[in-house]
């Protein structure tokens, strides 16, 4: 027996599932059309989703036109709802080593072409812009991107959901997709475990959700629920390849990788006037309330769904000390007296070229995806959602976002490689 039937069904309701469902509903409305749309998710609250783990950084300074256009378009939109999403356009201050300085200089002409205000300054100017820095060893130059900054990911996601809901989109919570049935090269039916009862009765629902996201539903004695759908859209973030497998698309491109962030207090340094600051060591940090939020993307991190936080402690062996505290303290003596308050781990959906996928899934007639924007999912969300909705409704992406078509799966390996990636 089929429980529900929808014209469009999204799997995954993080920032991208929320944005894409809103964009589709708006697109239909603008064209005088209507359709039934639903978004299903194991955990709409998203405690372990990438969306609620992220650093809130927003910029458009990429190497590839697709990423620039989508992020730039998104930032224009974020400016229009600035107060609601606490968008603080305070810039990205990037202290570059030799290689990344070469890269940003190479990309500069493209930034000018797109009208992005980016300043390139010599090392000697650093004390003027970042007075708390007292050691410029290893810094080849400073770039300041002005059309960039920080926003509140929770508020943006809730904005998308509200605008989707008022246009009739339904959000189903505590549903874990475990099977997809195909018919004539189309997805016909999605089957899922309905975990409402189990989670409502659980003393530790958060642990159970985490278990499902790492290992899948291992107790298969659960109630099931079925969804017929006209079009399926995969917006399952780092879990996108798991969903792709269910419709027989063997996805070797996307891999989950743990990323960690820490919150620390440091009363001696006031970062109120800055958006994101990036050091040559690739540590990125910004003011968060009265404290400092910092992250580091260690590239020796193995692939896998790992949510364990391991950057604790202040002893010599501590990853916090090695990867965050020591490099920051070397850069600024004022950052010696930090106190680690807490931290968390989330996952990136990584691709080899560090760019995402937007488009129709090859070999299937009614499946689309908007996935794997690595450390860019928040900043790209509005543009990516608009591009996907154009593709679904018009089979063509609007002119302003025309390079988003490069994000199709067919792109040559490495075509959208991004060097300045964190
Ligand atoms: C530490 C960290 C810092 C980051 N910093 C930034 C930043 O500064 N700026 C930026 O733009 N981006 C940043 N990112 C990246 C950004 O957070 C992600 O790209 C973005 O959140 C991805 O959104 P999503 O909607 O695709 O995935 P998610 O938010 O992960 O949503 C996917 C959803 O799919 C659901 N799901 C999975 N499997 C199933 C299933 N079988 N059945 C039902 N539901 C399922 C999950 O429950 C989840 O809610 C950061 C990420 C991390 C981890």
Q: What is the count of β-strands?
A: 18
Q: Report how far the terminal alpha carbons are from each other.
A: 47 Å
Strand content: 25-35%
> What is the CATH domain class of the largest domain?
Alpha Beta
Q: Would you tell me the structural class of the helices and strands? A: alpha/beta
Summarize the main sheet: 8 strands, mixed
**Order of SSEs, N→C?**
EHEEHEHEHEEHEEEHHEHEEEEHEEEH
| Count of alpha and pi helical runs | 10
Mean pLDDT: 96
Q: How many distinct folded domains?
A: 3
Structural shape: globular
Instruction: Determine Rg (CA atoms, Å).
Output: 22 Å
Which homologous superfamily in CATH is the superfamily of the largest domain? FAD/NAD(P)-binding domain
- Indicate the low-confidence ranges by residue numbers: none
- Estimate percent helicity: 25-40%
CATH architecture of the largest domain: 3-Layer(bba) Sandwich
Bound molecules: flavin-adenine dinucleotide
At CATH level 3, the topology of the largest domain is FAD/NAD(P)-binding domain
What's the helix and strand layout?
Elements lengths: L3 E8 L3 H16 L6 E4 L16 E2 L6 H16 L11 E5 L1 H16 L4 E4 L4 H4 L11 E5 L3 E2 L2 H13 L4 E3 L2 E9 L2 E9 L1 H6 L3 H11 L8 E11 L5 H7 L8 E11 L10 E3 L4 E6 L2 E6 L22 H13 L7 E12 L6 E4 L6 E5 L9 H14 L28
Parallel strand pairs: 1-2, 1-11, 2-8, 4-13, 11-18
Antiparallel strand pairs: 3-7, 4-6, 5-6, 9-10, 10-11, 12-15, 12-16, 13-14, 14-15, 17-18
Helix pairs in contact: 1-5, 1-10, 2-10
Flavin-adenine dinucleotide binds next to helix 1, strand 9, strand 12 and strand 16.
């Amino acid at each position: 027996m089929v429980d529900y039937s929808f014209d469009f069904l999204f799997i995954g309701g993080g920032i991208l599932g929320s944005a894409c469902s809103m964009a589709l509903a708006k697109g239909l409305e603008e064209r005088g059309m209507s359709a039934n749309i639903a978004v299903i998710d194991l955990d709409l609250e998203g405690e372990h989703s990438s969306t609620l783990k992220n650093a809130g950084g927003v910029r458009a300074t990429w190497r590839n036109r697709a990423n620039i256009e989508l992020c730039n378009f998104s930032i224009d939109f974020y400016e229009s709802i600035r107060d609601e999403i606490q968008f603080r356009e305070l810039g990205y201050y990037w202290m570059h080593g030799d290689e990344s300085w070469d890269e940003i200089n190479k990309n500069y002409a493209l930034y000018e072409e797109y009208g992005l205000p980016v300043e390139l300054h010599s090392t000697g100017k650093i004390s003027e812009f970042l007075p708390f820095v007292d050691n410029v060893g290893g810094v080849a130059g400073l770039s300041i991107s002005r059309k960039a900054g920080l926003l509140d990911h929770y508020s943006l996601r809730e904005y998308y959901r509200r605008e989707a809901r008022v246009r009739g989109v339904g959000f189903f919570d505590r549903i874990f997709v475990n099977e997809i049935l195909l018919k004539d090269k189309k997805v016909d039916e999605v089957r899922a475990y309905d975990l409402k009862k189990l989670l409502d009765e659980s003393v530790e629902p958060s642990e159970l959700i985490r278990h499902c996201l790492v290992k899948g539903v291992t107790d298969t004695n659960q109630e099931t629920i079925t969804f017929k759908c006209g079009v399926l859209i995969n917006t399952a973030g780092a879990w996108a390849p798991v969903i792709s497998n269910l419709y027989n698309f063997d996805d070797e491109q996307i891999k989950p990788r743990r990323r960690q962030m820490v919150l620390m207090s440091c009363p001696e340094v006031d970062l109120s006037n800055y958006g994101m600051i990036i050091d040559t060591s690739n540590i990125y940090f910004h003011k968060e309330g009265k404290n400092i939020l910092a992250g580091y993307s260690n590239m020796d991190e193995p692939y896998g769904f790992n949510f364990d936080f391991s950057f604790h402690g202040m002893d010599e062996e501590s990853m916090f000390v090695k990867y965050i505290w020591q490099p920051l303290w070397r850069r600024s003596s004022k950052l010696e007296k930090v106190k680690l308050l807490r931290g968390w781990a989330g996952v990136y959906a990584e691709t080899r070229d560090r760019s995402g996928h937007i488009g129709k899934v090859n070999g299937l007639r009614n499946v689309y995806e908007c996935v794997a924007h690595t450390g860019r999912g928040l900043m790209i969300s509005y543009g990516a959602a608009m591009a996907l909705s154009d593709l679904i409704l018009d089979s063509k992406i609007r002119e302003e976002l025309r390079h988003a078509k490069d994000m199709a799966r067919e792109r040559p390996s490495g075509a959208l490689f991004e060097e300045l990636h964190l």
